[in-house]
Amino acid sequence: MRVLIVEDDPLLADGLTRTFNGQGFVADTVASGYSADELLRRDPFDLLVLDVGLPGIDGFEVARRVRRRGDAVPILMLTARDAVQDRVHGLNVGADDYVQKPFDKDELLARAHALVRRSRAAQRDVVSHGRLEMDCAARRCFAGGVPLELPPREWLLLEYLLRNVERVVNKEQIIAAVCRWDDDMSGNAVEVYVSRLRAKLEPHGVRIRTVRGFGYMLQAAADDPR
Ligand code: CA
Q: Domains in the chain, ordered, with CATH?
């Protein structure tokens, strides 16, 4: 797995490089947003580890450019401790997860591996979690082995939640995933689709949890014997 590490602090960059190399990753390391942007246009990576404060263009802008190109590389952001705004902003511009500095090596690697796994799952045609299975090529969905009838928007919403399983997604992300660029959809409409999905899924032990103030998360029911 190739990882691109973007960190301008030489000591930290060196530590990160050594942490990733030999843990299933091959690391490239750059110290500026411009170099990162250039390399990302040229080479495919399995993971991007991105510092926020960088010379030239910052980590947010690098992430924004990556997503604007349609590049789905998983992005793990390194944020300053207690910088809640940075974390929220990072997620809004396309980061998938973040680790606070100073970080614990094991936590960093665990999050990195989880992101890569999730991104590989996102490329598969059949996605499943607990009792829920969606065959996106055949457009068939099963909950507890029972086929579900899903209109297009409910399908897209559920597919998005499933591909981001056990991760909180907000309404803006849902709207972006469910609507074409010329469509319009309100936050209230998202709530309507979520409640329709809940009515279909909950009898089969699949739950969509509301995370107050942030969004929704698909999770297996606590009694799910998965
Ligand atoms: Ca920095």
A: 2-122 (3.40.50.2300), 126-223 (1.10.10.10)
